[in-house]
Structures are given as C-alpha cells and as structure tokens.
Amino acid sequence: MSENKYERIGKELIQVIGEDNIESYVHCATRLRFSVKDRKTINDEAIEKIDEVKGVFYNAGQYQVILGTGTVNKVYSALRGGDQMKRRSKSHRLLIRKRESEGQFER
Questions:
Q1: Which residues of 13-39 are buried (b: 16+ CB within 10 A; e: fewer)?
Q2: Catalytic-role residue among 1, 3, 28, 105
Q3: What angle do helix axes 3-17 and 72-79 make, rounded to 10 degrees?
Q4: pLDDT 10s per residue in the chain (107 long)?
Q5: Taking the complete model, does pTM exceed 0.85, yes or no?
Q6: What domains can be seen in the chain, in order of their start residue?
Q7: Is 28 a catalytic residue?
C-alpha cells in the first residue's frame, strides 16, 4: 500500500464528516477519534464504504472510525499533513478538558 492510499482515505473521511464539522482529532491503536460539532450530519454508511474502514462508533462525544492497527497511524499521519487539520489535532486536549469540566463525559 502506498502513502497515497492513506492520503486518499483521510481526504474521503474529511469529505464525509465535513471539514467544518471537525473540531479536533486523535488516534488510539485502532481508531481515529474525531470530536465533531454535529454528529447527526455524518453519513455512517458512506464512512463504512471507505477503503480500510472496519466500522464506526460514537461514544463520549467522539466519532470513532475503526481502521485497525497499522492503518490508523498512517491515515492519521496523512491527515496531519494538512495545516488546518494539524492545528485541530493539537487543540484536542483543550477541548477534552473543556468538555470534562462541563460534565459532558469522564475519562
């Protein structure tokens, strides 16, 4: 698989989720975790049709895209290549702290 594949996957995810809908994003071992403004605008079926996506899950204010070990970090790196998306990933900790203080979820 070439790096272009991961860039394409990242672009497709952003297109379906909506760039303006994404507040921030991070990843764990298997999932990309997006903090989004409006979860209802995301078409789960369209996300699940994207190459390498194993499923989606929404929990604790995060829209989680399941990609699997080895794939998630490559898609995340491709997403961080865009300046706007890079700034959003850095703001994630502040957003989590804000939501925790508002009682939206606990760690």
A1: bbebbeeebbebbbbeebbbbbbbeee
A2: 28
A3: 70
A4: 445 899 999 999 999 999 999 999 999 999 999 999 999 999 999 999 999 999 999 998 899 999 999 999 999 999 888 644 555 555 665 666 677 777 765 54
A5: no
A6: 3-101 (3.30.1360.60)
A7: yes
